């Protein structure tokens, strides 16, 4: 079989399947969240007595990170890229820029908590601007 006659993958189906699985996992996470008569108990443990305090926000945080890793893997397969040099003068790929964004966002949140305390909504807004800047210029 020649390379010209090789069938290319159906990326629409792959994307729809990955998105559907991600949404199904999100629905499952919300379904197992502790509830009271007032609604979801956001900060109660999902698994009482477990080895880690898995509250819904903690589980969503790790679920979103895992989803980003899957998304970036699919993007790397579908749209291969060559590393580029940005303002840091090092070669970076999308995955490198994601790592820099996550690391910087953690530091921004820790700094916000140190100087201002909770809530961290403004730190999240700063992190979104930071992420756009990293993906644009780094």
UniProtKB/TrEMBL annotation:
Positions of transmembrane segments: 12-33, 53-77, 98-115, 121-137
A Pfam family recorded for this sequence: DUF2160
Keyword Metal-binding appears in the UniProt entry: no
Record carries keyword Signal: no
Source organism superkingdom: Bacteria
Annotated keywords: Membrane, Transmembrane, Transmembrane helix
Name of the protein: Glycerol-3-phosphate transporter
Organism: Gemmobacter lanyuensis
